[in-house]
Amino acid sequence: MTLENIANGKPMDVYDSAGQFEMFFRITINNVQVSFLAFALGIFSSFGTGFVLFRNGVMLGSFQYFFYEKGVLEQSLLSIWTHGTLEITAIVFAGGAGFVLGNSFLFPKHKKRIESLKDGTKSGLKIIIGLIPIFIIAGFLEGFVTRQVDWPLAVRLFFIVSSFSFIVFYYFYYANKIYKANKSNMA
Fold it and tell me: What is the DSSP string of 60-119?
């Protein structure tokens, strides 16, 4: 299908192959499942999480290289990263939750292994549950916005830059601010 779409001059037509709401719903459910899988497989000493992240990274890299080889990398980047900025970052963070789980089992520190595992599970679940709204937004973007390949470049870049800005603000700046506030309250 993708080769046919490229030959027809519409390489990103896959995003227009289903109804907007259906695509939004299916993609959101899939991404939530991938994130829970990346988390849950952390129980296997983090190797399962590493495998899920590696597999998804290879898939993404392969797609991007394929589009590069076919001369449509720019169209691919604009389409994929319209929703992928949120989606891919959230999957990486879900992998982080899996590593929290796996490492709590591997490195219990001063706790009993089962207690450490319980704590790691709670911490990881907080991360995963916190990512669900991000997956819903990414699914919305993929179902309704990514398919708009004729929109002006500035509008498409707006979604990418806004998503990236949100990630940096919320997960780095704001999280660090909360961490410092909690740390100073405990002192």
Answer: HHHHHHHHHHTT-HHHHHHHHHHHHHHHHHHHHHHHHHHHHHHHHHH--TTS-HHHHHHH
